[in-house]
Amino acid sequence: MKVYLFSLICLIIFLLTACNKKHKAELVLKDEQIDQLKAQIDNLQNTNEGLLDRMTDLSIVNKTGAESIKKSLESINQQYNYIEDLTEKIQLKDSINLALVTNLKRSLTDIHDEDVQVEVRGGVVYISISDKMLFRSGSSRLGPEAQKVLGKIARVINDHDEIDILVEGHTDNIPIANECNLDNWDLSVKRATSVIRSLQNDFYVAPKRLTAGGRSEYMPKANNEFAVGREQNRRTEIIITPRIDQYFKLLEPPEILN
After folding, report:
1. Where are the domains of the chain?
2. Which one is the CATH code of 91-249: 3.40.50.300, 3.30.710.10, 3.30.1330.60, 3.40.980.10?
3. Contact indicator for 140, 183 with CB cutoff of 8 Å
4. DSSP 256
5. Could you tell me which residues are beta bridge partners of residue 214?
6. pTM above the 0.85 mark?
7. What are residue 240's phi and psi, to 5 degrees?
8. 154-208 pLDDT per residue, tens
């Protein structure tokens, strides 16, 4: 009987010990699972914070990019408006040149084409007058026919206040030296000055619009080796130009946004 009771007690102790070990093992496993879950939660939280930070960065980048694109579009629009305005002004200048050429040619219909030529070169109107229409040979004094020609030109010039006038004297390459002129430079400048003085005093062209210059023999139209060429080179050119300040203002680019 005693032996039976002892065996029963030992069995109960064994079962309790086994249950306790099993329970401890289950608790350890549960603790491990809890730790794993905590680690996963921490990882998810870190990932979520990283995503939020990236979303904030992307928002800033998108905002900055949008502002940059907006400024670029505004800059392009400014440049487009400038080009459009420049084109309109160039077209206006071309229209003025066309009107000048038409009016000058109409005014000079009774003048021989070989003595007075009107053309547009490089966007500028040139009136080329042979020396025999204006001056005696080797002289800077205007002849009787000069008043007729210059008067017709002055009437057209006075109708256009927005233009300036440059008068250039040209000679051939035959040296000249007399009591009135030291050389071809001297002759070309004095001839230009004579034309300027006549436009101002006789035909009331505003002097602030006038400029005189001499080119001597160094801007020939034809070959100076032949008499025909030398005759073409002896000329006075009246060059009708836009106002210099207006011209540079026309070329000013717009202020580009940074």
Report:
1. 91-249
2. 3.30.1330.60
3. no
4. P
5. 169
6. no
7. -95, 120
8. 999 998 888 899 999 999 999 987 888 999 999 999 999 999 999 999 999 999 9
